[in-house]
Amino acid sequence: MKSLLSAAATAVLLAACGGQAGNAQTGAAETAAAGGAPVETRPPNGKDQKPAFPGQTRAPEVKAGVAYDVTDHVTGLQRPWGLAFTPDGGLLITERPGRLRLFKDGKLSEPVAGVPAVDARDQGGLLGIALDPKFAENGLVYLAYAEPPKDEMNNAAVARGRLVTTGGAPRLENVTVIWRQTPRLASTKHYGGRLVFARDGTLFITGGERSITEGRMQAQRMDGTLGKVVRINADGSIPKDTPFVSQAGARPEIFSIGHRNILGAALHPTTGELWEVEHGTRGGDELNIVRKGKDYGWPTIAYGIEYAGGPITGGITQKAGMEQPIYYWDPVIAPGGMAFYTSDAAPAWKGSLFVTGLGPKYLGRLSLQGDKVVGEERLLTEVGERLRDVIVGPDGALYVATDNDKGRILRVAPK
Questions:
Q1: Cβ distance 280 to 304 under 8 Å?
Q2: pLDDT in tens, 221-236
Q3: 335 in the Ramachandran plot: left (φ > 0), alpha (ψ -120 to 50) or beta?
Q4: Backbone angles phi, psi at 335, to 5 degrees
Q5: Per-residue confidence (pLDDT) for residue 36, from 0 to 100
Q6: What is the pTM of this model?
């Protein structure tokens, strides 16, 4: 594989981070930078808005001092969106035009047969991917995607099928749709689409509100799943302990409400809670901890301003009964995917949260102390491409998808 670049900075030997994954204490270099200037220097769009608590935005720049090499791991892709490693070292990759690929032993497969048809217009297509917790036994793969329209109306959906890699080219068998977003709308935007299995084997599906005004208002309604995080069983049935399962008029799979467009999500490695990043408008990209039955405010409260200028809804950023993001960005980073770093390959990264940036084109590393963001670092600025997803490989390297027609998967390996 061709080496593209390496981090310009020389590696700095750091004191051990201490603490558990996801709750790492700052190392020596980080401590020295604490209280410094924020990495973000552009003026905010919400000029008169104030954060709800100290440190909610514009954390100080904190450099971990980890040198890394970046190489092409996979090339020849078109707009890769989701990544998942198989237990035997393969890498499954979704491509937005509607293809699923398997990269294994240095070879990229032809498109996997059996993938459902998708609506690939605009922000649609084949999106998130997750492997069943018992994948080694059952081979089940879960795919999120935009379904083709009927009468100009469409929706997000989730299907599952069994991956078969023997007896010819890889294929999905017994493909079944296990969930559909409601209501269907005439829109090509804001599908959400990340899939994350909880520790109890249930499946979180992150949603969007389809961007148009009708969908935006749906984020606060209980009779549909637009602008929601939903939680289902692996077969599509509804868990008995979802927060609104007994509420008249509410969709029983709803887990949380008031979201705009969640494109990144991951389980916290220590607490097991679902964390997510979602898009704001001009300002207001959010990092949230998704908790049962909570309302995250969209579109009633939000940071930033409308794309066309002016306040969002009533122009308020706080309201009783609505959750605040634990962190927000203004201007936006346009978050794509996220991953907690739990490997020992780079001790100074351990406990960090990595978030890809589609807008400013960098990989953000957030230093965490409990539920607080205490530092921010920008990596891969030298790549200069939109970054769609990030996962941590079994080797401790980061694998990052670039969002291009000539897309690739980068391997970011700590030295």
A1: yes
A2: 999 999 999 999 999 9
A3: beta
A4: -65, 145
A5: 85
A6: 0.92
Which CA distances in Å does 415 have to 16, 19, 96, 347, 408? 16, 22, 32, 11, 21
Residue burial 252-261, b: 16+ Cβ < 10 Å; e: rest: bbbbbbbbbb
Enter the tokens of residue 368: 């965490």
Q: What is the mean pLDDT of residues 85-104?
A: 97
User: For residue 390, is pLDDT > 60?
Assistant: yes
Q: Is there a contact between 368 and 21 (Cβ–Cβ < 8 Å)? A: no
| pLDDT-above-70 percentage for the chain | 92
CA distance linking residue 101 with residue 401, whole number of Å: 13
Residue type, 344: D
- Positions marked catalytic: 190
Residue 224: both structure tokens together: 């549909």
Residues whose CB is less than 8 angstroms from the CB of residue 139 and which lie 6 or more positions away in sequence, other chains included: 132, 162, 163, 164
Nearest to 266 by CA among 374, 157, 356: 356
Q: Give the integer Cα–Cα distance in Å for 281 and 190.
A: 12
Contacts of 376 (CB under 8 A, 6+ apart): 38, 39, 40, 59, 60, 61, 62, 364, 365, 366, 367
Count of beta carbons in the 10 Å neighbourhood of residue 376 = 23
Interval 294-305: pLDDT, tens: 999 999 999 999
Q: Which candidate, 173, 196, 188, 178, places its Cα nearest to that of 339?
A: 196
* Residue 43, amino acid: P
All structural domains of the chain: 3-414 (2.120.10.30)
The reported pLDDT for the residue numbered 35 is 60
Amino acid letter, residue 191: Y
